[in-house]
Design a protein that fits this description.
Helix content: 25-40%
Shape: elongated
Strand order of the largest sheet: 3-4-5-2-6-7-1-8
Strand content: 15-25%
Largest sheet: 8 strands, mixed
Radius of gyration: 27 Å
Length: 494
């Protein structure tokens, strides 16, 4: 079912009139450049609403896509290189200029990621009278009735992609896209005399079976195969240079010279604000293997210890990481402050060899009630998964329950905030060895959405991280409470 229509309603004023575009050149990339000059403006960021300017490195990419004759184009660029805007511009050119049924599709690791290029294209259409008067704009689709052509985002599942017919497919974030998704769109080629699959992105965290790096390796081993065109902007080969090496920055980031990537933004992300391996991969396109590692740099956690407990009566957030059946359950206290202090309230673990052990739910609930009597608990924060009954019971007693569903977007933001606070000394803890053990066992998982705290493995014998999970939730809510003061209720006197 088509999404709800937005933007221009009813009949298009120029729906049956061809676009006034007659470039003299027969070279596809030069025609594309003329199309951009005539119709497109920058949709956001540096130069927003000004004519879209194509820089030399972007024209090189356009030549790879439009002039090379390759069926597959692999492009590896760091974050902040204008990939989304360039994808959108090339997609719109193909939509308007590649004839009847010129279908353009965008796939990525998920529909949210795929929507980035689509939304840039949608905004470019809305900002052009010539384009918007010829295109129906929907929530997830652009439709050009004159040639029965579409620009669409598609779900990143093989079943939804079967039977594709496209002139251009943009596989965004090819460093993390699923192999089976990529293969489906790759095998859809052959129905058209001219069709191009563009796989673009930065290297992903998983170096095994990664689409982008597989294309890179194949291109290096088979330079004679003209069906694949490969281009990268990276500092590969200079992994021994320091992470703030200006030479590496310039080598990997042509957007610095182009003026729409700013050096102070890169400086602000230097380790320890982000992990070195992450910075090298995302900003220098270097192939590094240590992207799943310890949550904090060595020595960071010990340096945050004060050896002090939380005094009775303090205003705190109480975080619960509740397990199912026989796994570990933990309770952690955090003071409500922009620089919160944390201490362990209780941990329940299955004794070694006791297969009959079950989490004592009633005991956990009693500990929460007792904590509310001892401290000023402003929130009891927990993921409701499999603990809904407990949270409902506590809420029925008028205790301040707040749900913290472990969605990727929420965990990504909370993990990033906790990491930044830890490495910059904006938090502290009591030095409890159980909390230290759980934080030390936690690793970072990284994908297109960002970083998230996780276990090293799913084995039942893997080291526990439940208190670390409490720390992520507790820090998020304690700092939020500290910076968002409760509104005072208006009181009327009669």
């Amino acid at each position: 079912m088509t999404g709800l229509k937005v933007g221009r309603k009813g009949n298009l004023t120029n729906g049956d009139v061809p676009l006034p575009f007659r470039p003299r050149s027969t070279v596809e990339s030069e025609r594309f450049a003329a199309f951009v000059r005539k119709f497109l403006v920058t949709p956001k960021g540096t130069g927003a609403k000004k004519p879209l300017r194509l820089h030399d490195f972007q024209m090189d990419i356009a030549r790879d896509v439009l002039d090379s004759g390759a069926r597959t184009v692999g492009l590896m660029l760091p974050r902040g290189s204008g990939k989304t805007t360039l994808n959108a511009a090339i997609g719109l050119y193909c939509l308007f200029c590649w004839g009847e049924g010129a279908n353009v599709v965008v796939v990525a690791v998920d529909e949210r990621q795929a929507a980035l290029a689509f939304n840039a294209a949608r905004r470019m259409v809305e900002l052009s009278d010539e384009l918007s008067s010829r295109v129906h704009v929907y929530r997830d689709k652009l439709v050009l009735p004159l040639t029965d052509s579409t620009f669409t985002t598609l779900p990143a599942t093989p079943a939804a992609l079967e039977g594709l017919d496209y002139v251009l497919c943009l596989a965004d974030e090819a460093g993390v896209i699923r192999r089976d998704v990529f293969e489906v769109v790759q095998l859809a080629q052959g129905k058209r005399e001219r069709s191009v699959l563009v796989a673009i992105g930065t290297p992903g965290p998983n170096l095994e079976d990664q689409v982008l790096l597989s294309l890179r390796e194949y291109a290096a081993l088979h330079p004679e195969d003209k069906s694949l065109r490969w281009r990268e902007h990276s500092a590969a080969g200079y992994e021994n240079h320091p992470v703030d090496c200006a030479h590496c920055w310039d080598l990997a980031n042509p957007a610095l010279a182009a003026g729409f990537l700013h050096r102070d933004a890169l400086t602000a992300l230097l380790p320890p604000k982000t992990r070195e391996s992450t910075f090298r991969r995302a900003r220098l396109c270097q192939i590094v293997s240590e992207t799943d590692g310890a949550f904090l740099p060595p020595g960071t956690w010990d340096g945050l210890s004060t050896g002090e407990a939380i005094e009775d009566g303090e205003r705190v957030v109480l975080a619960l990481d509740g397990s199912f059946s026989d796994d570990t359950t933990a309770l952690l206290l955090g003071t409500v402050s922009e620089t919160p202090h944390f201490d362990v309230l209780a941990v329940w673990e299955r004794p070694a060899g006791d297969e009959s052990y079950r989490v004592p739910v009633a005991e956990v609930e009693h500990a929460i009630r007792e904590a509310c009597r001892r401290w000023d608990v402003v929130e009891i924060v927990a993921d409701p998964f499999r603990w809904t009954r407990t949270l409902q019971a506590l809420e029925a007693e008028r205790l301040p329950v707040v749900e913290f569903p472990h969605s990727p977007s929420r965990l990504t933001a909370a993990t990033g905030d906790l990491y930044s606070a830890a490495v910059n000394g904006r938090m502290s803890h009591s030095g409890d060895p159980r909390l230290a053990a759980h934080v030390g066992a936690a690793v970072i998982r990284e994908d297109a959405r960002g970083i998230r705290l996780d276990k090293a493995s799913r084995s039942r014998t893997a080291r526990k991280i439940d208190l670390a999970a409490c720390l992520v939730m507790g820090h998020s809510r304690a700092t939020w409470r500290a910076t968002h003061k409760p509104r005072r209720r208006a009181v009327s006197f009669r």
